[in-house]
Amino acid sequence: MTSLLETPAVAAELRRLAEDGALDLPLPGGGHTGDRWSALADLGGRDLALARLAEGHTDALAVLAEAGRDPAPGALYGVWAAKSGGTGARLAGGELSGTVRFCSGAHFLDRAVVAAGDHLVEVDLARAGITRDEESWQAIGMAASDSADVTFHGVPVEPGEIIGPPGWYVSRSGFARGGCGVAAVWLGGCDGVVGYVTAHLRARDHVDEHQLAHLGAMHTAIRAAEAVLRQAAHAIDEGTDTDPPRTAATCRAAVERATTEVLDRAPKVTGPTPLCRDRDFAQRLADLLVYVRQHHAERDLAALGRTVLDGVDQ
């Protein structure tokens, strides 16, 4: 298993996958949601930076399809919707302004679906008035995802570039399903780490019981979270998912829990040598640590707990 590591290689591979049709995944809710999430998990097991960009592209295509729109031919897409630290885009007077953080693929994507207040806008990223902050991403983890702060300086927006009515982006059922797709990528990242750990142990002359116990615990956590995703995909496709936001929150929490297990236990199995002498392993752990923090830990768990307390059992 090797990591692509550098942004240019990731960008080239993403475009190759798109051109080969490998990113033309089944739409969520269309009867093959589990296959969609499995494909995203496979990408996560290969390389999380690549998978992050692939997930964004496929999510954008799903958003456009749900709105009854066709994507621009051959274009690589992203979904830029973060509102971190009081930042975010806004649409006023027919112009798009403001700064959006965590815009993966900031320098090489062709188009982006941008959340601007209550509006959603499709933006051609080659237009004037769009700048990228080269210094905004300082982390080692997910560095190859080319995630930067992007600022829109009064970019003109035509009516046809606005997707759906105000509030449509977050109110649609596909919003929750997209969150499950992200969790599938996290889970694939976990599989990639555990695959490395398994190979590490097989290459050793002696494996102790503590290492085996950690490996067993990681395997169990991953397979349990995978079962939660599989059950959710089935309910979505069968039309029996009565609370999509709660389902998504449960899936994301289950995978976050598994990820925490993997991040804690994997270095205990390997010891410090691969962390210091194997860039692939160290990068996988760093990428996974950063990416999974899209889940807001106890804050998201508390919100989920509130729905359980106030709602009807599923």
Which features characterize this protein?
10 helices; 14% strand; three-stranded mixed β-sheet; AcylCoA_DH/oxidase_NM_dom_sf; flavoprotein; alpha+beta; four-stranded antiparallel β-sheet; 314 residues; globular; 54% helix; single chain
Low-confidence region ranges: none
Helicity range: 40-55%
Radius of gyration: 20 Å
Give the SSE string. Answer: HHHEEEEEEEHHHHHHH
Distance between the termini: 40 Å
Number-wise, the strands total: 7
Family: Belongs to the acyl-CoA dehydrogenase family.
Pfam family, one: Acyl-CoA_dh_1
Protein name: Acyl-CoA dehydrogenase family protein
Keywords: FAD, Flavoprotein, Oxidoreductase
Can you give a write-up of this model?
- The protein is an alpha+beta fold and 314 residues long.
- The chain has 10 helices and 7 strands.
- Strand 2 and strand 3 (95-103) form a beta hairpin.
- It starts with 6 loop residues before the first helix and ends with a helix.
- The model has no long low-confidence stretch (mean pLDDT 95).
